[in-house]
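Final report, Chapter 2: Outcomes

The project's central promise was a pipeline that accepts a single protein chain and returns its three-dimensional structure in a standardized token representation, suitable for archiving and comparison. That pipeline is now operational. To close this chapter, we reproduce one record exactly as it appears in the project archive, with the input sequence first and the structure output second.
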Amino acid sequence: MIPTGCRTARAPSLLVTGGVGYLGSQVLRDLATDARWEGAEVRVLDNMSEGDYRALMGLGTLAVDFVEGDILDRGALRYSLRGVEAVIHLAGIVRSPMSFFNPTQIEQVNHWGTANVVECCIEAGVRRLVFASSAVAYGAGGPRSEDAPLNPIGPFAQSKCSAEEAILARAAGDLEPTILRFGTLFGLSPVPRFRALVNRFALLAGLRKPLTVFGTGEQRRAIVHVADASRALLAASSQPPLLPDRTYNIALSSPSVLEIVEAIEEIDPSTRAYPTLQDAWVSEPSFILDNSRASAAGWVASIDLRDGIAEIMRAVRDGFPADAAAPG
């Protein structure tokens, strides 16, 4: 546990776990410019397994206290929660819903790590907890609303469901949680990632490489731009919360793989895509969200698919911004 960089003597009002990763780095940028959080101080807890220190740079006057530590370490959590009023919990292992690699570690970090966060929040008297869950908790098919039963496929989805259960089990009086079930994130953030479908395709197209479409390409994926996901997290963690209900689906839309390819071809008609066969269990399931509850509460996605793809392709061809991490 390595505390660093506190700019003032006052206690922070917000803890962001996993705050130097893909989504967390965007949350920090938005906290630095959001008038609702002017004067707020932020503590960041991250074990640096997938994060980048450059997420902590260029934050202007935002006061940040960085703690290098793990959510499985209750000592690190207890330290990080001192004086905190609200928590945005992003820390965890992200995998494809069809990946069965290292299920024990995924369960340990995503489920039991979240249970640690919950228990330590209660010990510290922190009531407001916003958790980044996933659309894959519903299983394949859709569109799924928040009232649909959960039917997780694979260790990652199951770990998210178990984490939600750990949160909701203490929501009767000890905790005021909001669970945001995100579609797959896309677009640039200060710490960009290129593993998921849209970003991977945009990276390849930016490099003028061909795209490989597994299966028919008709399978659909709920998606949301990383900046819109950040806005939802800040809305849910504000006081009073602008997203006050217990659970929300957060998505722009649920395009097919072929529609994603078409968006790339509109930007650069020279892009080539080639179909290939793959086990239908891996390639064919769709994950589709109904986001009407979030829309009714006032959250509306502001960045469309084409613009998110274009910003990545421009970054690849013209150079990444000075404060952005290298592709990873």
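Archive annotation: DSSP finds ten helices and 14 strands in the chain.
This record, like all others produced under the grant, will remain available to the consortium after the project formally closes.
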